[in-house]
Structure formats: structure tokens, C-alpha cells
Amino acid sequence: MSLTYIVPLRRTRCVDDDLLDYLNRLASDVEVILVDGSPEAVFATHARQCDPAIVHIPVDSEFRSSVNGKAAGVMTGLRRASHEAVVIADDDVRYDASSLAALESWLMRADVVRPQNYFAPLPWHACLDTARTLINRVTGGDWPGTLGVRRSRIVRAGGYATDVLFENLELVRTIVASGGVARCPLDLYVHRKPPQTAHFWSQRVRQAYDEFARPWRLAVWLAVAPLTGALLWRGAWGSLLLGIVAVWLLAAMGRNRAGGRQVFPLRAVMVAPLWVTERAICTWLALAAGATLGGIPYHGRIVAAAATPLHRLRARFKQSAARHGLD
Length: 327
What we know:
Layout: E1 3-9, H1 17-26, E2 31-36, H2 40-49, E3 55-57, H3 69-80, E4 85-89, E5 93-94, H4 97-106, E6 112-113, E7 116-119, H5 124-136, E8 146-150, H6 151-156, H7 167-177, E9 182-183, E10 189-192, H8 197-202, H9 204-209, H10 215-234, H11 237-256, H12 266-270, H13 272-293, E11 296-298, E12 301-303, H14 310-326
Parallel strand pairs: 1-2, 1-4, 2-3, 6-9, 7-10
Antiparallel strand pairs: 4-8, 5-10, 6-8, 11-12
Helix pairs in contact: 5-11, 5-13, 7-14, 10-13
């Protein structure tokens, strides 16, 4: 396939054989670029284990001080990509031939494509996170650990910010603001391995902080906890039950869309109210972190911005176009 597959990676210990086996197999069909921000000893071990066909490189020096290491790795990889169609994927994402072919086809019609991840296997915490996916599928589409992009579009845009938390949203907004076309095919399913339980817990408040990039959604999540508390205080059990049923229905709609029943089990619908409760609590914790710390802790740094507002990006590109027009 005429695809470049970019994996940004940063580990303090060597990755397991599963990832390298996957990338080594993938390298026989597509160009694979592994951008490795790991410490020197770990980097050297990865280099020995990679197939010679894999382009294994460190993060470019100008991006090493970036707040978001993943975005820094993506920008480094895009500079080396040989193909127009580029797949950006976290290290737990596992494409097969059909999903890669489908993504390549979508990139003939769009500048950035947002597939839909599903977890397999499905331990309890991945089931809880799948409830998030189901609800998102009826509220604008889920945000997966992978994107497809047209390299020329992001290059013309001058890249995207590497100092924000919600890097996928930042990339999509940058492409859209520069005049590109974004698509979110709900039937393009890509397998993702579930995280370790400890890693899952470490992401709760950070993922809630992402909603600072989408103020209307942030307002909704901030309203859930006090509204639920008020209903409990008043003993309005009927209203609470109605809310739970509404969440179930919303998750069921997400599961039913675009053949989702094939990859999303029914139990993910049933735990959706638990996920809503978790997100509501974590949103208030994220608000507290923003107020007291000035942002959210991320890999030893404090990240203030979740993403750049779309209107600000559009204004930036409009000013840039005007300057070039005057020149």
C-alpha cells in the first residue's frame, strides 16, 4: 500500500514483543516510521529488535522540549514520510489489511480521517471506557488512538501545536481551519489493545481535562454532578431513574450505529451510567487542577491548554493568507 505508518513512542522500559512483531509484519506492506523518544539504552534495544525495513528514529531536536511528546513524535515522523497518505497510531493500535485499505480509500476523499477504536480483549476497565466510545458515537464521533492524514495538508498548514494536551483534536482542528476536509466514518473499526489497569486510572482526570477544549461539553459535564446531588437530596428517584435510562438509550444508539454490534458488547451499554458518573467527578477534579496548578500534570510537566480554539486557528490562517496575498 502507498501508506506511511507513524508510531510515536516513549518508554522507560523496552516494549513487549507484541508491538515489535506487529510493526515488523506491517513493514512488509507499508512504510513504518517508529519515532522513539525513549532513553538512550531503551532506544538502542528497540533499534536492535526492529526489522531493517522500519525507519527507527529519535524525536527531532527542535521538538524535544515539547510538552506533548506524542505530537512531537508525529511531527518528526511526518517530515520523514514518503507517502501522501499517512497513518498515525498509538502503540496499542492494531490495524489489519482491511482496515488499512479502508483508511487509504477514505484519504482519497478527505484530508483527515478519524476511525473508531474497539478494545479486544475487554477487561472491566476497557468495558467502562467503551461506554465512552458508544456515547461519543452519537455526539460527534469518538476520538481514537489513531488518525489518517494527508501529509501535504498538514505540511501546508505549517504543522500543528505540540504544547497542548488533546493533540488529536488539535491536529484535526488545524487541518479544518486551513481549509481541509475532516471525516469520521463510524463503520471504520480498528482494533486497540486495552491498557493496564494502572494506566487506565492514571488517565481519568487527564482525559476529563480534554473537555476544556470544548466548552459546551465541559459545561454539560460540570452540571451532571450537582444536578445528580440535588436529585438525591430531594429524593427524586424517578428523575434519577429516568436519567439512567436516557444514558442507556444513548449508549445503545451508539452501539447500533454503523454495525457497532459486531465489535461493541451489550455490557458496555449497561455500564454507561457508571462511566458518566466517573467523567462527571473527574471533570470537577480537572477543574480543580486547572485552578490550583494552572493546568494538568502530564509526564512531569503542567499542560495548560487542552487545544487551540478553532476560531483562533481560522483567524491565524486568514491572517497568514492575507500577508501572503500582500506579498
